[in-house]
Design a protein that fits this description.
Layout lengths: L1 E4 L5 E5 L2 E5 L21 E3 L5 H4 L2 H8 L2 E4 L1 H9 L5 E3 L5 E4 L2 E7 L16 E7 L2 E5 L12 H4 L4 E5 L8 H11 L3 E5 L11 H10 L3 E3 L6 E3 L1
Protein name: UPF0173 metal-dependent hydrolase YtkL
Pfam families: Lactamase_B_3
InterPro entries: Metallo-B-lactamas, RibonucZ/Hydroxyglut_hydro, UPF0173_UPF0282_UlaG_hydrolase
């Protein structure tokens, strides 16, 4: 599967003949200043929770592409009210068949609110079954044994996991998460954007390697294949 990283927790995956984007925070991220959100072509946008650093460019990119936005019930109603015409609810524990495959909402241990402090529903992650492969994006979360339920539903080819610590899992817990999920390939997200989540990338890659795992940390704008 082709994966393109856009900084922070924003990345896209090409699977099932569609391009699926996650948690777009680009125009508000100075590290991603070389990326123009208007140039991004996607079919779906999955939003894990309401925090600004995961939802900042949802409306802009969705309307540019007539892309379907998928998230919790609260995000579904919020983005619909913001003028997004193509929205679909998916709460943790629920699943839905899309034209690229099946997506299932999963539990995440994290807070969720809109920028004005109003309630944005529960945070979640997403697991996917597609003809091109299967993968999991945890969203922002702590390490949780709920992750053991994901491989009971689908055998994964890779997982996207936060590694920045402080607000989410750090490197050590992400390694444990990978073990719970039964994956050897991890796309690291949610790091470096803010001062308190900066990581030593070389040390992180080595720590995963020592655990028999491969940590992928592509540059912003770079595409890789897993």
């Amino acid at each position: 599967m082709k994966i393109t990283y856009y900084g922070h927790s924003c990345f896209s995956v090409v699977a099932g003949g569609k391009t699926i984007l996650f948690d777009p925070f680009i125009s508000g991220n100075e590290l991603a200043s070389g990326i123009n959100p208007d140039d991004i072509k996607v079919d779906y946008i999955f939003v894990s929770h309401g925090h600004f650093d995961h939802s900042h460019d949802v409306v802009r990119i969705a309307n540019n592409n007539d892309a379907m936005v998928v998230g919790s019930w609260e995000l579904y109603t919020h983005f619909g009210a913001q003028g997004v015409k193509n929205v679909h609810p998916l709460n943790p524990g629920g699943k839905w068949s899309f034209d690229f495959g099946i997506a299932k909402g999963t539990a995440a241990v994290h807070s969720s609110s809109f920028q004005d402090g109003s309630y944005a529903g529960v945070a979640e992650g997403f697991a996917f079954k597609t003809e091109d492969g299967n993968f999991y994006y945890s969203g922002d979360t702590a390490l949780t044994l709920d992750m053991t339920l994901v491989p009971k539903w689908v055998k994964l080819d890779f997982a996207a996991l936060p590694i920045g610590d402080v607000l989410t899992m750090g490197i050590e817990d992400a390694i444990e998460a990978a073990k719970l999920l039964g994956v050897t390939h991890v796309l690291g997200v949610h790091y470096d954007t803010f001062g308190f989540i900066k990581v030593d990338k070389a040390a992180a890659i080595e720590a995963f390697r020592d655990a028999g795992l491969t940590l992928h940390l592509p540059e912003i704008g770079e595409s890789i294949t897993i």
